[in-house]
Amino acid sequence: MGGLLELEGLSRTFGPVTALDKLSFEVPSGHVMGFLGPNGAGKTTTMRAIFGLMDLDAGTVRWNGEPVGAAERRRFGYMPEERGLYPSMLVAQQIEYLGRLHGMDAEAAGSATRHWLERLGVADRAASKVEALSHGNQQRVQLAAALVHDPELLVLDEPLAGLDPTGIDVIGQVLVERASSGCCVLFSSHQLDQVEDLCESVAIIDHGRLVASGTVDELATSGPRRLAVRVEGDRQGAWARSVPGVTLSELDGGEVRLVLDDAIDSDAVLDAARAAGRVTKFVFERRRLSEVFREAVNR
Amino acid sequence: MRFLPIVIAILAVGLAIRLRRRRGIRGAPSVLGPLLGPLVARLSRGKHPFGDTGLVAGREIRERLRGRTFRVITLILFAAVAAAVVIPAVRGGTTHARRVGVVAGSPALTAELEAVARGVGVSVELRDQPDLAQARSALHAGHLDLVVGAETILVKDPISDTDTSAGARYVRALSVAFGAQRAYREAGLTPAQAATIAAARPLPVQSLNPGRNARTTSESTALIGVILIFIVLTQYLTWTLMGVMEEKASRVIEVLLAAVRPIQLLGGKLMGIGAVALAQAVALVAFALVLAEVVGSSIVHGATPWVVVSILVWLVLGYAFYSWVYAAAGSLAERQDQVQSMALPLSAPLIFGYIVSLIGASSGHPSLLVKVLAYLPPTAPFAMTTLVGFGAAAWWQFVLSVLLTVGCTVLIAMLAAQVYRRAVLRTGGRVQLRELLGARTN
């Protein structure tokens, strides 16, 4: 398994609204990629375009360098934002049926269905109707439907929405496992803490345009340096206000968070802190993904 | 008896309306489910000859057979067919001998009573009675159906002019025969002369077309066929409409279309529902034929195979034509109330063709309107079936009507597939048809 999904110059308008504006990025195999953006940024439109569910005004979706067609899509797995299953169909029959629509024979589909229902913790509901399941269990069944045919590309629209912590853990583990086995995983979410934990890279879009992308490490360490400093006897960080090139961004229980200009030497900051009192903490901090996100979308 | 088709027609319309209200009712697995489900499941394993379309069709068949709606409707239809076949046979007396009390009988009277019975086509059981008073008592107690004596024909209840049962026809024939004999005697004819005249039989009239009796049977079969086509089309077209709407409403359509093309999904759905419809219709026809043979009913038994084949052909063509229209309509809606607002205009031509054909068939003479409607695809399933039953359609007229319907079905299918492809992924309210003209897919 392994592959590369390329989105190149995707554009689409709905009347006066521009949903996608020359959107381009790549999703490599082997790791989980988060697809982030505020509501209405174009995430769902992009995902639907990957599966041919949305006509594009311009742009191309490629898989391993070739335009994506019906044959390629049969090897993809999709979990749409608005969950879609037959409400009155039995869980196992439904998953097996979807597996067969993706080209599996009956035996393989049956075996894979049992495996994924077991793995996702809903094997005891195999003979239940989907409509009889809780929201969380329906979510797990929906993920099983996307996984049953062992897809090369997995595209999940808000797979963690509405799940309890246990459900998030289970689904998160599955996504990481799939990526480790060479699957290409792209998923959207507004739960940025979970995205930060699960993903190795992210793409952030706004108004249909790519506004930031890269590995989580790159994004966390990009931009101005950030320092967390604690000085005994100075809970308000008064010492820092007089240091040129330093901006006090946050006070938190006697700890001050500082943003340093590129030009300033951190030793000068340390010296200023020592002059104010005994320094008990002096640590360079990574940016949280939520900070990166807010900065990227200017909100 | 002549009201029976009207009663069945009213019941059919009532059932159709009820079916619309019973939309989507599914409960515990049916009795048929455990029997047919595994069979269908086994058949669906391995590679499908129709590929993904076959897979989709297989799911439709399994789910329809599993539903309680199918079980209930099937039982109702079988009961209705049984009633339509058995009740006329029982009322016609084909299995019940008329019990005739004979007062002051004689060999000549016995011979006359039996001759008239043969002429009418009923069987009689003659019972000698000691006198008229005891015969009257037996008639009143229900031990006899009729008392015959010198210058006397006695029945328990008056016989209506509209009563066409075998018993009524027998009494009328006796009345005519006895009246004629009295007239012969009063005219002074010798017993030999009277017997000669009484033995007179009508000169058979020859005709170029088949005999009236055979045609009457075919007419009855065609009438039942028109009703059957209407019920089956109404039931399964409603399923098509609701099935497409429900896939859109539940958003499962997005998951399905990520794997298969729209035409495969739609074609499979229509094929699956159509297969269940055809199987049910064939089972009903076979059941009617077997039952008619068992009870000696003439309402189906004796019909030309051509009429039965015609009914099944028009059932398939009618479904093929309308199913695309209903599927396209279903793709425009995502709520039940939206579907209901479309159901009436969609079914208007279907109901019109059904009613006009039914009236034509009941009147005994297909009208010019029926002959015109037989060439219009929306109404041809009913009108042409009626014409075939009456022997009023030549083979080339039948073929012409079939070709016209098939041609229009192809055009309708192309248009419907386009509407479906463009509408089924649109959400947020009912899609107006004009919005789809010249628009992108979604």
Structure description:
The complex is a heterodimer of chains A (299) and B (442). By secondary structure, chain A is an alpha/beta fold. In chain A, strand 12 and strand 13 form a beta hairpin. In chain A, helix 3 crosses helix 4 and helix 3 runs parallel beside helix 5. Chain B is mainly alpha-helical and 442 residues long. Helices cover 69% and strands 4% of the residues of chain B. Chain B has a four-stranded mixed sheet with strand order 2-1-3-4, with helices on both faces. In chain B, helix 13 packs parallel to helix 15. In chain B, 41% of the residues are buried.
Largest sheet of chain A: 6 strands, mixed
Q: What's the helical proportion of residues of chain A?
A: 25-40%
- The 3D shape of chain B can be described as elongated
Compute the number of helices of chain A.
11
The counted number of beta strands of chain A is: 14
